[in-house]
Every structure is written in C-alpha cells, then in structure tokens.
Amino acid sequence: MASRHTVVFLVAVVISLSDFIHSFQPLFSPDGNSTTHRDISLRAVLRKTAEVCRDMAASEGRDFRLTIDDSLSTDKVQRACSTTGTSTSLLSTVLFQTSIANMYFSNAKVDVAFALSEKHHFDDETFQGGRDVITAGVAAVKASVKLESFVAGRRNLGQVCHTLQDFYSHSNWVELGNKSPYSTLISPDQPLENLAGLSVPTCRNCTGGKCENNLLPDLLQQGLLTSGYFNIFSAAKPAGKCSHGGSFDRTSRKDPVGGISKDDLESSHGSLHPKAADLAVNATMELLEDVRVAVGDKNFLRLMGLSQSSVLCFVIDTTGSMSDDIAEAKRVSFAIIDSKRGTQQEPSAYILVPFNDPGFGPVTMTANADVFKDSINKLSASGGGDIPELCLSGLQLALTAAPPSSEIFVFTDAPAKDAHLKSTITAIIESTKSVVTFMLTDVLASRRRRRNTQRVSPRKMTQLDAQLYRDLARASGGQAIEVTKSDLTLATSVIEDSLANAVVTVFQVVRNPGRPDNFTFIVDGSLMNLTAYITGASSLTFDLTSPTGVSQSSSQFSGPLATITTVGNLRRLSLNTDNQTGSWEISVNSKNPYSVKVTSQSSVNFIYNLLEAHEGAHGDFSLKEGRPLSGGNASLMISVTGSDKVKVTEVTLFDSSGPTEVNGSLQSVGSGNFLVTFSGVPAGEFVVRMKGEDGSSTSRSTATSFQRQASTQIKTSSISVTAQASNTNIEPGSTISVPFTVSTTTNGVVNDSATGMFTVRANNDRSYTSTSPSSITIASGDGGTANGTVTLTAPASAASGTDVTLTIEAENAAATDINYAVLRFSVVAKVTDITRPVCQTVSSSSNCPSSSSLCASSQWTFIANLTDGINGTGIESITIRKGNGTLNTSTVAGAGGANVTVATYSASCCSQNVELAAVDKVGNVGKCAGQARKTTVATTLTAITAAVNTTSTGGHTLSISHCLWISVVVSLLWK
Ligand SMILES: *[C@@H]1O[C@H](CO)[C@@H](O)[C@H](O)[C@H]1NC(C)=O
Ligand SMILES: *[C@@H]1O[C@H](CO)[C@@H](O)[C@H](O)[C@H]1NC(C)=O
Ligand SMILES: *[C@@H]1O[C@H](CO)[C@@H](O)[C@H](O)[C@H]1NC(C)=O
Q1: Which value, to the nearest 10 degrees, does the dihedral of the CA atoms of residues 698, 701, 704, 705 take?
Q2: Where is this chain compositionally biased, Basic and acidic residues type (predicted)?
Q3: C-alpha pair distances (Å), 858 with each of 374, 472, 832, 883, 933
Q4: Residue 453: Cβ within 10 Å count
Q5: For the chain: N or C, fewer Cβ within 10 A?
Q6: Under 8 Å between Cβ of 107 and 162
Q7: Which of 592, 538, 534, 532 is nearest to 562 (CA)?
Q8: What is the rounded CA–CA span in Å between residue 562 and residue 571?
Q9: How confident is the model over 926-968, as pLDDT tens digits?
Q10: Is 216's C-beta closer than 6 angstroms to any atom of ligand 2?
C-alpha cells in the first residue's frame, strides 16, 4: 500500500500518472483497432438516443426509419429524430456532437483525476466500492437533470460510464460466459453476490507469455466474480489473486504472474477485448435507459443534447434608465417565441439573468416559453441610476448556466462595477466557447467625454468603459453593438439572426487598432443566407468584391452584392451569393478599431476541443482546460458535422489581429474526427480555422472548397495553472479543498529556475464561500513551481443538482500574462433512498374477446398499488412505458403510514400489454407490467394484513399485504 506521504506526493504529480492508463483507452486506440471509452460511449449514446426517438415516434404515430445498429452516426440519428425536415434539409448536429464530446471527455478524465482510485476502475475486487461510485454518480446525473442542469448532468454521466465500462474489462464477467450486462451494478438495492472472497485464490501463473487460461477452473465453475489487482508502485497483492496485467502493473510480476484485463487487443486477455467492449456498450445503454425512465424521454433527449436549436439567453440591466431597453428585449423575445413556437427553430431553452446594483440574478432557466415570458414581464427598471452595475456577475451566471457554444446577449447602458471579473469571464468564455454580444445603448462619444469630464455622471458609459465590453465580445467572437436607445429596435435583428437554423461562422476578424485591410473568404455551395456584420466608427467605408469581379461599395445600400442596413456602429450586409461561390473579398478602410464577421447557414460545421497529451507507453489525451502554453505544442480534436463526404484539408490557428497562421498536422481518428497537432505555437491570440473539400455539394455550385472558423479566441500563456479536486461532487454544507500548482514555462516546458510572484484569484459563479491565497510566490530552489490550496464551501441550503464553476487564475506581477484552471462541481446530497418504488398488482379485469378482430369494442383494466415505502423519498411520477391506454392515479394512506399510489390503467383490448414505471424523488425507478389476455387472481393477495380503501375502483375494498411493501422485486402476476 502506498503510504500517506506517497499519496500526497501522488496528488501533485497526478497528471503524469495518467501515463499509466489502465482501462479501455480513453479517446484514441493505440493500434487503431481496439475499442476506446469514446467508441463505447458514442455507440451507446447513439443507439439509446435512436431508440428513444423511435419509441416517441411510435407513440405519436410518426414514421421512424432508421436501423439501430453500430453503424449509426450523429448525423443519421439526429436526422431520423428530427420531426420535420428531409434527408437534405439544413441540420446542425453541433450541439449533439458537443454534448457527446463532453460526455466522453469527462469519461476520459476519470483516468487522470482518479488514476489511483481502485473503486473508479473496479480494480482490486472493489465491487462494492465501484458500485457505490456508480450509485452516487447516477443519483448526481438525475439530480442535475431535475434542475435542468444538463451540462453538469453530462459531466456526471460521462464519469459514471467510465467506471461501469471498466468493469467489463477488469473483472472476469466476460470469462464467466455472461452474455448480458451485470445489472446489479446499477441496481443498488440488489445484493452483490458470488464475489470471490479475499482468501479465495483466483488466478494461476500465465505460461509462456500467454494468459488465456490463468483464471482458476474452480472459480469459473463456481461462477465467482473477481477483478485484477493493479499497482504501479508495489507488487503486493493478496495470495493467489489475479492482476490487471501490463507493463505498468507491478502486481502482475508477482505470483500468479500475468493479468486478466481486456483493455485493448494487446492486453493479457486481449482476445476477449471485443466481447468486453460490446458488453460495455450494452451496459452503458442499460444505464442510459435507467436515466431515461427516471427523467422522461424529453429530458433524456435534452441531456443527450439532441437539439437542433440554440438557447435564447438574455442578461439584462434593470436599473432606472433601462426601461426602453427592457421593453425592447421583451418585444424581440416575444416575437421570437411567438413566431417559432412549435417549430424546429423554437429555442431549446430560455435563460434570463437580471442585474443591477447591489444585486444580480437569479437565473431563470427553462424550456417553457411561458415561464420565460412571465419572468421577463416581471422585470422592471428601478433604482440604481448613479452607480455602475454588476454586469459581469450576471454574465458569469449566464455563461455557466447556458450550454456550451451558446450566444448570450447583454443589454446595458452602464459601465460594469465588477470589472475585476474580466479575466474570470474571459476564462469562462474560453472554456464554454459561448459567444457574448453586447447591446450597449447611449455610449458617450469620446469627444463629449473629453470636453465634459466633470459633468458626466458615473452612470454614463464612456468609450473607455465600453472597451471592457468590446474586449469580452472580441474574446468570444461576439460583437459590441452601440446604438441610441431609440435605435435599439433596429439592432436586435442580430438576435433573430443568431437563432436561425444551423448558423456557421465563415470568417471573422478584428482590427484594433484599426487600419485599412483586405480580407478574403471562401463561399461554398452549402451556404444559405450569407450575412456580414461590420462594426466600427461611422467614418468606416468598405468595398465588397465577388469571385466574378462584381463589386459594391459601402455607399450603395442596395447593390448587386448586398443590401446594407446601418444602425449605430453596426452595418449588416445581407449578401446575395447566387451562383457566386468561390473567393470573396472585402476591403475595409478605417483607422479606428473595427470588426468583420461573416455568418451563414449550413449543415457543414465543426467543433473543436483543446487536448492535453500524456506521454507513456499508451500515450493518450485528455481535455485541456486553460490556455495552451506559449511556444509549446497544442493538440486539438476536431469533429466535422453535416456531411460524411467532407475532406478536411487544413486546420490552422489563425491570428485574427495579425499575419500569423500556424498550420496543424492532421490525423484522422475516424467518423469525421481528427487529431490536430501544432508545434511551437507562438504567443498570441488565435482562432481555429478549418478548410476542406465537400464531396457532397451538388447542383448548387461547382466549387467544393469551404472554410469555417471558430468564434472563441485561444490565447496562449507562459504561466501553467493546474488544479485537481479529489471529487467533483460536493455535499451541501461541506467544503472541498482544491490544491493547485502554478509554474512559469518557456517553450511549453516548466522553467525550473524561474522565480516570481503571481496574483491568485478564485471566483465561483454561485457566490459560495471560498478561500484562496491572494498571491503565490515561486522562490529560487522551488523548481519553478508553487503550490496553493483553494477551498469552496457549498451552503447547507444548496439544492441537490446545483452546479458550481470555480476558476482559479494566476496573473504575473507585470499583469501582462494570465492563465487559469476551470473546475466544475455538482452539489449532490448523499442519497440514502436507494430502493426503488415497489409495485403490487391488484387486479386485472378482462373482458377481452378471444378474437382479435373484435378487440376495438372492448376495454380492459389493470390496477396496481405502488409505494416507495416508509423510508423512501416518495413516488414523484408514474408513467406508461408500454401501452396506449389511459392512466389514473390516486393516493391513499397505506399500512404503517406509507403513501400508496393506486394506478388504474384502462386500455382497448387491441393493446393488451402495459408497463408502468414509478419514479421516486431521487430517481429510483420501479416498474410493473400487466397483460390483458389471461387473468388470474393474484395469490399474493391472500396475505392480507392491512386494508386500504381506495376511491377509484368503483367501491371495492382492496387489501394489500403489509409485508409486501418492502419487497424489492417487481411482481409479475401473469405468465
Ligand atoms: C487492424 O485491423 C485490420 C483489419 O482487420 C488489419 O489489417 C490490421 O493489421 C490491424 N492492425 C493492427 C495494428 O492490429
Ligand atoms: C509462477 O511464476 C513465478 C515467476 O516466474 C514463479 O516464481 C512461481 O514459482 C510460479 N508459480 C507456480 C505455482 O508455478
Ligand atoms: C447487446 O445488445 C444487442 C441488442 O439488444 C444484442 O443484439 C447484442 O447481442 C448484445 N451484445 C452483447 C455482447 O451482449
């Protein structure tokens, strides 16, 4: 066993421990043929999502045409799930892809964050511990979904799937001949049986380097479950026990030598790797099904990110002078809601965050348009008036509440009082890739400010104040739109534009300081409704030239290439691209700062994530949060959406303010995914730009080249900040400590002779109590690194499922460089109710005719009593899983005071099966099934100890056995 001292040391070097990955490979297969956690998760998510869509289509009487097998892709599934549209219509799978990526990145992270925790990997026969991890994780997923906190739900889901999947690689479940998943792992109320005890030997030596028959025959005969021991420091293991195996596992060199892992094809039991991976897929689907039943089909699809539309997210200043702005925000959002309700473009959720001074929040986050309308109706402009407002605090809440890559609109006419949050907001923008656009009203012109400095009230926003908003807009790829209050109505068309279907960014650039410049961008045949936005001073002029040489100047409001509207500092160009694919040029003439952004609609787009490489025998990657290191290497994973025929030809880090463009080297990792590596990324600010050829583009054009650009800027830093918490869930009322490390790097490598002082800031979006050193010093002899600890305390009153984002920033003494770590936690109350609701069938009356042709004229009824027992959290919902009849429920007092829900289901005799699911308040699912055809009186009803009157069954008194309430088995009374 590692000593305590060693463990402390290990925490500090935890990143390098992931070099010893000992599970299915997290993201990429070393041999190209093994199945990774990413593959397993993707297959399970696609199949389960397709099943849910199929079932929903069936219940709504819609067609569903898709074969559900392992050849599914995100595009195929989303198209099949789409209730409108055709196989060729515009469709964006960006949100779905992003959500799935978030799940597999948090899955992969378990190998970094919990590298040495045996229970997270079912090593060392820790079956109870492993199942506890799963039970707690599944409860956290359900709690998050209940609060519509899908981002946190996906993170928890990814993690819990890692542990579940590892079971099939690390245990002998496959070797025992099992053909289906071990359901007990997701059923905490079932006993774990047939475990090989600590003193039971399980393995013998592998012989001749082959481990095919190293499990003891006795063990297999008795059907006993075991798993391999694993340790990278010590060879110690209990006598006769199996090891995990592999070069890093020291226990596998001790008698009995060898291992049983099925992590990849080269593992000790590598020949069983495909079987283990297939079972892990089915087990993951089973877990997803449990979550699906607990949260309902609609919320399950939201959790999977199967949404075509974006969220509508407003952050609104509600101080006195804002009444016109609030009225406009109300008008535009109501117009959007009313015109899109019931269509595919209806926003998938609505988020509203008010702010003023001293307050901000709360966040309203809802899928219900009427709830949003209600909240925005309740906003009224009052108070404030002479002080700056808490704009960034409000924005921080919106950024962490919204799904990644959302567009957020901020309405204000005041400077931010909380400008100290700028770097925190920038960090969260970089981490969420959300776009922030500011609608700034009545910004003072710089000339007036200079003349009347004393008379300008602090409420008024100066050019300098507005620069903060411009910087944040720029970091995110959004815009800072400055208009008069009376013109705001004309500017809000950008909000409607952003909510169009499948919006992509084709090109974007910022010039600050401004200078005349020419820009080119490629227009491809898949693009529809090309729109350009140019912000800048009123003196700015430009010329637009199409590939065929037609041109138009900014003075022509309606010309051959574009219709131009101008409001405030914004020019919106609606481009006419008919048959004009190819290279377009825009030349801008301005000495003041300006920005150019070209967007369009297309199914073809991409998502990217920064990765961190791990060295070692099975070098793999994990998601990198924080800025890449100046002069170092950077890796990205790119996923192309919208076409199976896209060929990516070039991925660059493009410096949008200068001439630098760093080329990445591309490696395909299957299904439209690419690993891109950049070496020696210079200091600077970049965006990811992708170019490719689309083989599927058809009649619309001959040109097949296309380009897309990401919105978010990637800044590099010479400071490295790493932080790792021991847990990602916090119980209400408890405190978590987060150790972090700061170092200075040169060309991406820690400079071990560097010294210096760094300002440290720790901020969280929930205003939870947090402690942090205000600075940290690397002294000479410290090896170039300094360590500190941040604590975060969740209040006892925090609702289970609340997520909280903590950023830890370190800034150098000159305040010229900053880097950060972003950590996300879920507040999850300890789940004590692990038993599922129990179903007891009471009766099934059937007058169904034996001839099925007569079925439509007859009805049958099924009655069941459901309870969560005395100690349960109580039944929250009962739904019909199978059957198209009607369900009525009533609640009565049962034996011993437990609430009993009487479910009465009636259906036509043409539908003779029913399955009901009862979900308790923490998401445990109990099911009961019934069938019309053969009726039998339940024999269990003879054990009558308590009588319950019900009102819904026509006056008979039903009697239920008291002792049955604690039964955990779902009774099936018909065979
Ligand atoms: C991967 O599988 C392919 C096709 O089965 C085979 O040709 C190739 O040799 C395999 N590669 C490795 C490294 O095992
Ligand atoms: C198993 O292998 C080890 C190492 O080669 C050897 O020392 C030991 O004697 C072997 N045990 C048996 C039972 O053969
Ligand atoms: C997984 O489930 C599918 C569909 O239910 C089934 O066809 C397949 O045989 C299962 N695979 C394993 C390894 O159990």
Answers
A1: -150
A2: 250-267
A3: 45, 66, 45, 15, 12
A4: 9
A5: C
A6: yes
A7: 532
A8: 11
A9: 999 998 864 443 333 322 223 333 333 332 333 333 333 323 2
A10: no
Atom index in ligand 1 nearest the CA of residue 31 equals 13
- 773, two tokens: 């050193």
- pLDDT value, residue 473: 95
Look at the alpha carbons of 394, 400, 403, 405 in this order and tell me if their dihedral is positive or negative.
positive
Higher pLDDT, residue 359 or 553? 553
d(CA 837, CA 828): 21
Give the range among 95-99, 143-147, 904-908, 929-933 with minimum mean pLDDT.
929-933
- Residue 936 exposed, middle or buried by CB count within 10 Å (0-12, 13-18, 19+): exposed
Is the CB–ligand 1 distance for residue 69 below 6 Å? Answer: no
pTM: 0.89
For residue 524, give the nearest of 694, 640, 645 by alpha carbon.
694
Token reading at 494: 């950008």
In this structure, the residue with its CA closest to atom 1 of ligand 1 is 33
The candidate with the shortest Cα–Cα distance to 521, out of 504, 496, 540, is 504
> Position of tokens 């009805």?
859
Pocket test for ligand 3, best of 275, 282, 286, 287 (most atoms within 8 A of CB): 282
Grade residue 455 by pLDDT with cuts at 50, 70 and 90: very low
Of 29, 33, 267, the residue with max ligand 1 atoms within 8 A of its CB, to mutate for a pocket test, comes to 33
Of the chain, the end-to-end C-alpha distance in Å amounts to: 53
Which of 205, 207, 251, when mutated, tests ligand 2's pocket best, judged by the most ligand atoms within 8 Å of its CB? 205
CB-based contact 437:473 (threshold 8 Å): yes
Alpha carbon distances (Å) from 163 to 156, 886, 893 = 11, 39, 40
Which DSSP category does 465 fall into?
H
Q: Phi and psi (nearest 5°) for 359?
A: -105, 165
37-59 and 74-81 are packed helices; what angle lies between their axes, rounded to 10 degrees?
Answer: 10
Rounded alpha-carbon distances, angstroms, from residue 842 to 838, 879, 924, 945, 961:
13, 18, 22, 15, 11
Which residue has 């020419």 as its token pair? 518
CA distances from 297 to 126, 791, 793 (A): 33, 38, 34
